[in-house]
Amino acid sequence: MARSTSKSEQPQESRSGDDAPNAVWFKPIMFGLMLLGLAWIIVFYVSQGTLPVASLKDWNILVGFGILFVGFLMTTRWRS
Q: Has keyword Cytoplasm (predicted)?
């Protein structure tokens, strides 16, 4: 005989801190950092090295990749 279970009979799934979904702000910040890093590098190349920060010269590439990398590292902590 088949037994149907209602939602009230199923055990509640409790999530610990590591399994809980991310805060609402997490995804926008993650994607925002990746896009900001990409935009930083594109602006550097399009402006032929005069923007975004002229005094950094070629270090602008490292800054752009650093911002992009922080966003990428956040993807390892993304839970839904």
A: no
